[in-house]
Amino acid sequence: MLKLFRFLKPYIPSIVAVFFLTFFQAISELYLPTLMSDIVDNGIVNGDTDYILTVGGRMLVIALLGMVCAVFSSLLSSRTSSGFGKLLRSKVFSRVESFSLQEFERFGTASLITRTTNDITQLQHVVMMMMRMMLRAPMMCIGGIIMAVSKDPVLSLGIFSAIPLLAMVIMLVSRKGMPLFKAMQLKLDRLNLVLRERLTGIRVIRAFNRTDYEKRRFNEANRDLTETAVRVNKIMALLMPAMSLILNYTIIAIIWFGSTRIDHGQMQVGDLMAFIQYVGMIMFSMLMLSMIFVIIPRASVSAARINEVLETECSIRDPLHTERSSAGVYAGISTAAQESAQTDHDGILATGDRAGKSTHTAVHTSVGIGSAATATDAVQSMSASGQGASGVCAGAAGTVNTRNPDSGASRDNCDSVALRANETDADTGTFVGAVGGGISRDSAAGTDTGLYTSGTPCAGMSATDMSATADASPANCDKSAVYPDKHGSVRFENVTFCYPGAEKPAVSGVSFCANPGEVTAIIGGTGSGKSTLLKLLLRFYDVGSGRILIDNQDIREMPIQALRAKIGYVPQQSVLFTGTIAENLRYGKEDASAEELKRAIEIAQADEFVSQMPEGIDSFIEQGGINVSGGQKQRLSIARALIRKPEIYLFDDCFSALDFKTDAKLRRALKKETANSTMIIVAQRVSTVIDADQIVVLDEGKAVGIGRHRELLDKCGVYREIVSSQMSLEELA
Amino acid sequence: MKDMPEGKGSRHAAEMNIREMRRHLPMGRPGGGPRGMVQPAPKVKDFKGTAKRLLTYLKPYKLHFFAVFFLAALSTLFNIVSPKIMGQATTELFEGMMEKLQAVPGAGVDFGFIKYILITLAALYLASALFGYLQQFIMAGVVQKIVYDMRRDINDKLSRLPLKYFDAHAHGEILSRVTNDVDNISSTLQQSITQLVTAAVTLIGITVMMLTISPLMTLLVCLVILPLSFIVTKFIAGRSQKYFVRQQAVLGELNGHVEEMYGGHVIVKAFGREQQSIEEFNEVNERLYEAGWKGAFLSGLIMPLMHLINNLGYVLVCVVGAIFVMRRVIQIGDVQAFMQYSHQFTHPITQTASIANIFQSIVASAERVFEILDEPEEIPDKADAKVIEFPRGDVQFENVKFSYKKDAPLIEDMNIDVKRGQTIAIVGPTGAGKTTLVNLLMRFYEIDGGRITIDGVDIRDIKRGNLRSIFGMVLQDTWLFNGTIRENIAYGNENATMEEIIEAAKAALADHFIRTLPDGYDTVINEDASNISQGQKQLLTIARAILADPAILILDEATSNVDSRTEWLIQRAMARLMEGRTSFVIAHRLSTIRDADLILVMNEGRIIEKGTHNELLAKGGFYAELYNSQFTDRAV
After folding, report:
1. Which of B4, B278, B311 sits opposite A97 (nearest CB)?
2. Which of A410, A593, A704, B302 has the smallest number of Cβ neighbours within 10 A?
3. In this structure, what are the phi and psi dihedrals at residue A673, rounded to the nearest 5 degrees?
4. Distance CA A430, CA A442 (A)
């Protein structure tokens, strides 16, 4: 939790002020009984009315001053705690927004929401409590002890003997109570779970006649929870009476010993009265302090959860060398990246690693072309020693980004140097069709570039079939050279990816090309890695090995924003946001004109229902899009992608909620619209992929066939299985 | 809080603070949202009626409550008496000392008397603590039992509610009523009932005690403290309320934004909208800060102000008391007692002010709970309801009429005659209301007219349990519970042996993947069933249906959940399963549709066409158009 207090930094002056204000207030509080004892010991004993009134007046002034201090301290602590909450919330939210899917899914949506909202509110309250009460309690406690000792040191011994007793009671109760509190929370969660299952599964439960069983399950959880709750409360019931008993008995003891001291003339009555009041103050502050034991554990759980988010770095970063070229356009993002590079130390490893990877590419190209020896030297020394790299790097390239002083950043500059070397090589025009490290791979692993990846040749295919289709693939890829004016050619090169923690890779050794003006369909069963391919292309995750190229550039070398700006993505689950339909569509392109909106809606086959809505395109979409149907949502989410006019369209199985008719109409309209774009469609229905220029058949993460429908029917067993499961045999004829 | 001079005061103050702290730490609260510091009291529709009904829950524990009241009153009373008694000791000390000063012969403190007083005090404190503990102890048990009863009642009620209720209410809302609202009732009940008693007894007791000491000073104290306290409480509560309402609204807005952005994270990223999202967040966050600190500051003002009022009383008592003592009107011990009393005086006042709010919140929660309990229930089985022991699976719809909403008829005059073993394909766009058929067949919803019969018996004359056991269901939204795979498969047949379970799993082609899981059939499916894939879940639900061995099947050809290859294999298993059974299939596969004995074409919730494939094609209606748009002009 202490780590999070760094967000209190801007409020240090306030906190210091609160500290002093609280201090003065405590003093004023502590001073009152002393004045009271003066009234008794001097005023009453001497019968001096004037003295009594003067002291009384002084008491009033002090009480007033105390209040003023308290008011200001309350003002400052409110601002501080709210400000702390604001800052923390903002940091957490921005951090989460920076997360890629990898980090995002590690936490889960629900958990991230709680961390951003409830957990922070918790902490905010704790900060306020601390400033308002917890700061005061120790001051009052210590101040009270000092005052008591100054009144009568001997009698103070009574206080010192009571304090350990009090502490013991608090310890005992909390040691017994705390585990039970925790158990209670678990049992409450259990009850919630049982109930939630009961609600979501109501049809199944009733269909299987298991209502009584579910009732029993709930009752068990209920009884379990109740028993624990009773025990906790019975233990906690002990705390208050025990503490007040100790307090009162201390006072009795003090009166007893105090009276003998008074009798011996060692003490005055007013002092005893004041002393009793101090005892009250001390004990009460002890009690307040004990509350810390209740608050801290709960707050530290929240704090740990928040910290976890803040300490998670996004695994997917912009390449730093693009900072200059795109500084104007992507200013916001690159500064964010820079910020993270400066604050993050773990990141060094990651960037270093990547630098290493790119160096290999550079080695290949520079050797192949035989370019400047200095570059090769730099590259080699880089891979030899990471630490000393920056110097060599500077020597080789002459330009080092001085904005990032730490070594991680400069190593990234090396990365950029190497890459630029790579680019210049390409510019020489020697290998137009195969820039970026493909050369060496082609010769080393020629089979990999084909369709069939290691180990699992497609069932029922002969060797000649394989070579035949393998021939088709490079031809397919070359088309980008034929249409140089068209952008957006996508190439997967031997891509392998493994989800974190997964045993088997979700995608392994996949290679294919998707060209502008063509439709590439990806088909395969659940878990075969279809959606993963799209997510890799969007760089929600980075590939484990291999590369993905867009227009012959590795996507890891592009600024993420620029990459995603090329892509119109329609996810499997349509997500719309609160706002009008127009606002939702403009998500794709902020400055889209009314004409563009209209067109996109028409193509997406959404014009009919949109025009039927009360306010047409300005109709409001409720949170979660609950006021439009699943099919309508899908069509709007397609329109949103269309409006971008991207180079690449990614449709992730997004026709599933459409009826056959709309599906067919939509695909026909899409075909016209996307004539110049690369279109990649993930599909489950064979009917969706039948017309595609190219179908990639995935099975357990591997591409087991690439070709047109007819070719695949002949050659690919897996494809045939899929088709025959969806259509009866005579239709295949 | 004002530091209490001693004894009772401190205890009170401490209790106050703990309560306040609890309120500051948001726990589960009605509505599910995080609760602000002092949330405005929620609106209640029928306060009196609900409060009365809440009392019926307390009634069985009448005796307990009397005991609690009695003990709380006693405990408070002892505490109230003690300052006055302690004052006697102080007086004795003072007198003895004064006499000594004046050199009265044989003068001195009467230690015998002081000892007597202190022993009395010790006894009083002990009794007070004991009673206090007992009262809390009893309360803990009683309140939790009340809450237990309440949850049990809701639980029973939930099993009697018709499906209509669950379809019409968000799960989160029902959940929040059962947990958060009930929780709110329990925690506030526990504190506020005794608090009310204590506050009342304290207020009256202190007034009485003060009057016995000095009516004049009592009047003075009351004149200062009472009106000022009320003014401060009212003034601040009103102002801060305004900000809290605003804060709550903004917080809702902020949570909404967070939920939405996190929920659509993929889209935000894919469309590069992170910056806009953060900007919007910061804007709302700023507003939250403004409303938040103002509300917190204003409500935080109560403390120092009440404190000041307290101190005013304190000073007044000191000065006036001192003068009175000098004039021998009262004794010094009485002044000491008075100081303590005047300090304790403000707490019950602020307490009662908040108690009104707390009760309102209890009643509001109770009202939400009672709303569930008041929902109309399923029509109970007829007394002479029948049981079909060996169902054949003939299904007939005779002039069936049905609608979800009164003015929007969905099905009018439908007649279907299904013979045992036939397959009925239901075709239409997604969301065309295919679940309606399930709802009617299984009597999840009641039809408005006509009748549905199984083996010639009206389903309304069949015991619900029996009726539902005739059906087997594999729907697209798989539902598994947090338990082992074995338990989940055996869900439809509690007495199934392990062999039967494995048999069913094999038939559903699930055996293989189950055996690859770490604990095989004993693998526990976790809370959100995320440790197995969607397709695997589907397989398990199929195995579950197979094991239940129903006469009639309702299947959803869930293309988007089970992968195509597995689906093809499942198809065989299903074909075997469907043999000899009547099957209603929500069909996606052309082969199923074409081979069906009857096709029901649904659109927008209505059955618009029915017939065989050839009949419907010949008819040239919606189905024909659907079919042609899908399967012609293809290179098939």
Report:
1. B278
2. A593
3. -65, -35
4. 16
